[in-house]
Amino acid sequence: MLGLWLIACIESGLRSIAAEDCSNGIDDNGNGAADCDDPVCTLVCAEHCFDGKDNDGNGAADCADAACADACSEVCDNGADDDGNGLVDCYDPACLDSCPEDCGNDEDDDGDDLLDCFDADCAGSCVELCDNGLDDDADGLVDCSDPDCAAECPEDCANGKDDDDDGDVDCDDANCLGSCPEICDDSLDNDGDGAIDCADADCDGGCPESCGDGRDNDGDGNVDCTDSDCDGGCPETCFDGRDNDGDSAIDCLDSDCATTCDADSDGYISTAFGGQDCNDASASVHPGAAEICEDGIDQDCGGGDPTCAPTLVGSFMVSDGANWETDPPTYTCLEACAEVFGGVAANYACSVNGAAITNTAYMSGWGDPTFCTTPAEEDSKKNTHYDCGSVGCSYSAFVRDNCPTQVNHCWEL
Question: In the chain, where are the structural domains located?
C-alpha cells in the first residue's frame, strides 16, 4: 500500500510541474485552471473582451483592451449593451451622433443634455400649450406670455401686449373695462365703478365744474356753487359778492336775501352782511331807534347804552328827622334820601336847591349850627347816634335840632 501511495504522489508532482497546454481544454498543470484561464497562459492567450479578465496579460481587461475595439463597439439600435459600459443603445455616449431626439418623451435621446423641445433638433416640432404652466415650445415663454397663445388667452391689462390678438393692447382693449384707471374722455367706465369720464371722482381736477355733485371737478379749490363757474345757476348766497342766481342783484340787494340780510324786517341790513343793524333779531334795534338809557340795550346801534340823567325825586327838611333827645341814628344826606324815598344811598345825589345837583347838604350838629348855613359834603355825618353830650360830637342831615327850616333835595341817579 505504501508503494502505491508513493507512486500517486510522484505522479501528482510530475503533473504540477508539467507545462500547461493553453488550447487543449485540459488543466495540464493541475492548478485548477485550464487553458487561457490559467495565469501561465496569459502571454499566449487572446483577450476574451467580456469575461472580466486580462486574458492577454497586457494590463487591460475586456473592452478596455484595444484588442476588443471591434467587439466592444456599441450598436445603437439593438437593445444591447454592446460595449459593456452599462449603457444601452442611444443612452450610450458612443451613440450621440447616431440617435435622433424624441421630442415628447422627457428624455435626452441624443445625449446632448437637452430634453425634448429644449433640444434644437425639435425646432418646429413642439407646440405651446397655453394653460399648463410649461414652456412647451422651449422659447422661454410660458402659456399666455407666449405669442403663440395670443388667440387663446384673455387680455392681460398691464403687460404691454395684445394677449387676445384683437389689435387692442392692455387698457385700450374693451375686455379690460373695470380693471384700468379711469380715462376721462373716452365715454367708457374704465375702472368699473359705474361712473364714466367726468362723472367719476377720479377725474376731478380735469373737468368742468358740474355745480351739484359735491366735488371740485375743475380742481380750483371751490366746490359746486362756491365756484364762480356756477354763477347763474345757483341760489343767491347773500354775502359772497357774486350774482349766484343770475338775476343781476348781488347779495343783500337781491330780494332772495331779505330774510338773511334783514331777519327782523326793520329795514336795516345786519352788520354780519355789511349793514348797520347791530341786532337783526330785534326790530326795535337799528340805526336811529329811540335810545332808552341804562337798560343794557344799544337801541340806536351807536355803540353803547347811555347813562340816564339824574331825576329830582323830592326834598326833606333836616328837622323832619327824629328829636335829638331820643338819640336817633345819624344820617348823611344820601342815607336820608334813601330813608325818605326808598332804595339805597348809592342811587342818590343831594343838593341844597332844586335847580341842580350840588353834592352838598345842610346838617345839624350837637350844640353846633355851623352847617345849617354853610352846607357840608352830601356824604358827611359824625358818630352813629346823635345825643353824645358835647358840642360838635355828632352831625346829622336828618334830625330835629338846630336846622328848623333848612331843606335838602334828593336826585335819583
Answer: 18-68, 223-285, 311-412
